[in-house]
Amino acid sequence: MDESTLAAGASGTVGFLIALVAGAAEAPKAVPLVETWPVGVFVTLLGLCVGSFLNVVIHRLPAGKSIVWPPSHCPLCLALIAWYDNLPVISYFVLRGRCRRCGSRFSVGYMLVEAATGLAFLGYWLAYFRLGLRDGADHLAVYAVHMVLAAALVASGVIDYERKEIYTSVTNLALAVGLVGSFLWPDVQRVGAFDHRLPDWTGWARADAVLLALVGAAVGAGVIYVTRFLGSLAFRKEAMGMGDVYLMAAVGGCLGWEAAVLIFFMAPFLGLVYGLWHLVRKRDSEVPYGPFLGLAAGIVMLVQDPLIAYFRPGIQAIFFQ
Known about the structure:
globular, single chain, mainly alpha
């Protein structure tokens, strides 16, 4: 399918999700329908299509091109790709990774992004609705906001890995979804809040949820900005890009401040092995940090509750004593 079709489909899907979650906005538990396997198949297919659209974002946004027009085409012969040759994952194997017209190879990265996004949509659906790995996460609004964040993390991570750049147009969209979602459905923040309870700052749950999202964004951005500032002073060159700051603002706005702190401490360990390999093989100490922030965020989205239970005493000692 071409980008205009994908964009229209994405808009329709967002509308469908909003309409679906609106009926369950105040419900503490997800409706039984969302736990059925037909829904699991639907979210998997949705994730594959989102992954196909993310490929457009990944390859066109850095080039300053429109993500809507022109339709999908071979980068070598410029032949338009028919919808049946543009089915996520399937078409790559049917065509053996080549253009039907000129035979030029397509990067396997296209297929991997589609497969990873589809598996993420399925995996989090299983974790939230079937397995119950997180208390309070079995809510359609929580799932929808988290999947928007996951899509933004995939796009930002791949772009950062390939070009060492993170685009605020992607991260700001995820942050906006987190803020709006928190206002419409306070459960988006409740699932990541202290003991799954919103603070009573204003007496209005929606306003409290938005304020908590802003706190999360500030903490997420703040810890990275301070690290960037101190690292730049120590190494006398830019230690981290501002894109990482915006990325963590989106993460904190969607997942909460405690998740942002966990991700901040987890990401360096995830990137350590790659960083050492990169230094030894390429003699280059500059490592893209976005992919490892995204990977840490993906892990925390699954296991935040046990991690918080284990690390909360230390976190409280650092920030409140």
